[in-house]
Design goal:
The complex is a heterodimer of chains A (136) and B (172). With 136 residues, chain A is mainly α. Chain A contains 3 helices and no strands. In chain A, helix 2 (66-90) runs antiparallel to helix 3 (98-122). Chain A is flat. Chain A starts with a helix and ends in a 14-residue tail after the last helix. Chain B has a 3-stranded parallel sheet. In chain B, strand 1, helix 4 (85-97) and strand 2 form a beta-alpha-beta unit. The longest helix of chain B is centred in the last third of the chain and has 16 residues, at 146-161. Chain B has one domain (36-161): 3-Layer(aba) Sandwich (Rossmann fold), CATH 3.40.50.12280. The chains are: A mainly alpha (136), B mainly alpha (172).
């Protein structure tokens, strides 16, 4: 290994060490400088809620997945817009291809609209809580 | 007296591993001039506390205007009002959630001793918040004027730094 290469390697190593120190150092410094504990009279220091009242129930609850279906349908629209922006930018630049471009865009949007048709057919747009009946 | 010893013992246990000898005074000066009180008004004293925070009395002159909505960001608890036994649990929880170093000001007669609510057979009011946790400064009054609260803050600063930074105002 030649000298330049090994010096470069040392640089890389030094930078890695520096990065580790930069990431882990504050934790150690804080550990040394922070108050070791805080005075406690109700043993509630670890309670997440900060308004003094005991929380009612747990935050880890199950809720309906209906919204996620909406989110997925939104992705279809978002992709639509995303891919149409560059097309819109160059659309009218070469006039002889305007018709062809238009047809291609129609095909593209048409295929993507099938997502909505599909979702419609599946009843995503009906805001209903679905009952999942476990199979016996 | 025993409770005081307990508190100083607890304070010792809270101390950080590394301290800075003389530089700690500088830290104390910083803390004294930027006390962050917890937003916690309970009764009529809280009105005076709000007045003290607003433009006329302007607590900001003394660096204590940043009323924090979360106990985890606050280092000063101003008990401004009557503490009922039902509320005592919540206050203790908030006190627990404040990080060290932390101080408590008992503002007004209710917070000091129960004030007008002390009578034989009363069952609802905590007769002095020092029954719940250690208090650093007591501000008498029913309710105390904003000037009194400012004076209490100056007293607390004196406790932190060992020096009074403002001349004592004499009544004319």
């Amino acid at each position: 290994m030649n000298d330049v290469l090994s010096v470069d390697l040392i640089y890389v190593f030094a930078y890695c060490l520096g990065g580790l120190a930069f990431a882990g150092g504050p934790f150690i410094v804080v550990l040394l400088l922070e108050a070791r504990r805080t005075r406690n009279y109700a043993h509630k220091t670890e309670q997440f809620i900060e308004c003094g009242m005991d929380p009612i129930g747990d935050a880890w609850i199950r809720y309906s997945a209906v919204y996620y279906l909406y989110a997925l349908v939104f992705v279809a629209f978002a992709v639509d817009v995303l891919y149409l922006i560059p097309v819109a930018l160059v659309y009218n630049r070469i006039e002889e291809f305007v018709i062809r471009d238009f047809v291609e865009m129609l095909i593209f949007v048409g295929i993507l609209s099938l997502v909505i048709v599909y979702a419609w057919k599946k009843g995503v747009f009906e805001w209903k809580r679905r009952k999942i009946i476990p199979k016996p | 007296m025993e409770a005081q010893e307990d508190n100083s013992q607890a304070l010792k246990e809270c101390e950080p591993y590394v301290r800075f000898a003389k530089l700690d005074e500088l830290l104390a000066l910083g803390r004294a001039n930027s006390l962050w009180p917890l937003t916690f008004g309970i009764a009529c004293c809280a009105i005076e506390m709000m007045a003290a925070g607003a433009s006329r009395f302007d607590l900001a002159r003394f660096g204590a205007e940043v009323f924090r909505p979360s106990p985890r960001q606050a280092d000063l608890m101003i008990i401004a009002g009557t503490v009922n036994k039902k509320l005592a649990v919540a206050i203790k929880t908030l006190y627990d959630q404040m990080p060290e170093p932390k101080w408590v000001i008992a503002m007004g007669n209710c917070a000091i001793s129960g004030g007008p609510f002390v009578f034989p057979g009363q069952y609802a009011v905590v007769e002095g918040v020092d029954k719940l946790f250690p208090v650093d400064v007591y501000i008498p009054g029913c309710p105390p004027r904003p000037e009194a609260l400012i004076e209490g803050l100056l007293k607390l600063e004196e406790k932190l730094t060992g020096k009074r930074r403002w001349p004592i105002v004499k009544a004319e």
